[in-house]
Every structure is written in structure tokens, then in C-alpha cells.
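Progress against Task 2.4 (sequence-to-structure conversion) is shown through the following example record, which the project officer requested during the mid-term review.
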Amino acid sequence: MSGKVRTIYDLAKLAGVSAATVSRALARKDVVNSETSERIRKLAEQHDFRPSALARNLRTRRRGAIGVVVPLGHDRGQHLSDPFFMTLIGCLADELTESGFDLMLSRVIPNQDNWLSKLIDADRVDGFIVIGQSDQSGVLDRIAANYLPMVAWGGFVQGQIHCSIGTDNFLGGRLATQHLIDRGCRKIAFLGNTQAIEPSLRLEGAKAAIRARDDIILVDTPTHFASEVSGSDIADFLSQIGDPPDGIFAASDLIALTAIQVLATRGLSVPGDVKVIGYDDLYLARTSAPPLSTVRQNIAAGASHLVGNLMKRIGGEVTGSVILNPELVVRETT
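C-alpha cells generated for the chain above:
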């Protein structure tokens, strides 16, 4: 055969077999004789022939892309530039690339309960990774009852239907608060938006740590606190609770570092006057001055579990939720 091998039909003619046999051989299907498969693959290599991704996707009914969705129901002002989002999305991009998929990113303000159904009906991706349940767990459960290729990063609660991967937030909250107690704190303020599952579980863990202690006061956060909480929000909160706390447990590293700035403007030192601990262990926690004590979420491991479970679900396998252990990281703010 003269000329360039451009299509699977050209290669089939050159090999003296059907196009279907060539397709199966290149896909390494066992139904093709091993000697024939090897000959076809060598011919393909000699002629620098590679089947197009589009053709391969049409044969397998795959789109070659995964939808990564960030629903912002409880905190509509939050941006994808949030350091936690950027860290997790970066890890997911690496994992998906290794698995042969592109990443299609969406930031969703869920004004209606059908926001996820619309994304699925658009039929542009092979499955979805939802970053944070926000206040949309009911929507995720409803979809998960009939749609398999979906996983979510976030907290786990008994009875949920959707598959989630995330840290044991209750344990993380208890570890953080117990650490503050062990450092001598007796009035502890929790800062975070508890309308979302993860911060609410962290607050419950904090409450569990002080349950048997009559000498500890835990001041709950206002529910209107945003994830990207401003210094003025924290200053107002501290003004409302009277005497300043001697310990602060923040639901994120970003909130913790903002709180440290507010304390400094009030002439309060960290950790001398107030001990502060965050949550996540992002890069900025390790490089802040002083370096921030925090509860580490293994974000890279979480991304690996998210993609691994989603790949199984795309293949038709049902997977359970995964709860990762948090780790207390003690630095200079406590």
C-alpha cells in the first residue's frame, strides 16, 4: 500500500484484516489472536498511526473529560482563587491527566435544585467530582440514587447516599480544641461558617473536646461568617463576646491568619495572649510569620481517592465513602 496510513481502514487494508480486528488489536482485546495483534501494532508503529481520541471516545462512548464542580450555596461570595480550592484542583488535574482525562471546571451558584441534573444532561463529561457539599447534600443524594459516576470531596454523615472522600472533620475539630486546652486555653472561640457540613462537624468535635470540662468556655461562631471572612467580621465578633478569648480555633488556615492580623491591631500577641490554630495545612500556613499551627488534611491523598473511586464508578463499580485521618501540626501560633 502506498501513501500515508491515515485511518483505521488504511491500516486494516495493509494488514489484510477487517477494521474491527484492527480496532480490537489496538485496544489490546483478548479476542484477537496474539500474533495478529502484535503484527497490527507493529504496522501501526511503523506507519506512525494512532487512532484519534475522538474516534476512540465514540467507540467507547467516552467523552475523555471529567467535570469538577464547586457548588457555592452557603457562601456565594467565595471564589475559586481560595487557596484550598486551588490546591485541591491542582492535585485533581495531575491525577486526571495521569488517568487520561481532561478537567472541565465549573463554579455553580445553586439557585435551583436542578443545577446538577442540568450539568449531567449536557452530556459533556464522563463523570463528576464535586468539591464540597456546601448546603447541597440533599441534591447530591437525590442524584446519586440514580447516577453512579459522581464523587464528592467533603464531610461524611451517617445515612448519606452519595460517595464522599474527606477528612474526619469531627476528629480534626476535637484534636485542634484539645490542643488549645492542653496549652492552657480556657475561653476558646470557633471561627467559621457552620452552614456547610465540614465546618459544622469541626465545631461538633470542638464541643466534644470540652464536654467533660466545666472550666472551658467555647464561643460559637455567627452562622453568617463567610469562608473568605474579612478582618472586620472577626473584629465585630470579638467585640461582641466581651473579653478576648485566649484561644481561637479557625475552620480554615485563611481565617486563622486573618484572625492573627486582627489580634495584632488590638495589641494582642500570638501565641502570648491568644493561641491560634487553623485547619487544612496549606502552603501559606507553613510560610506565614509566625508559622501556623493547624490540622492537616492530606489533600494529595484525597485527590487520589477521588479520582480512583470515580474511575471505578465510571466502570460500573459501586464504591463506598472514604474518611481520611487528620493530623495535628504544631507550629508557633500555639
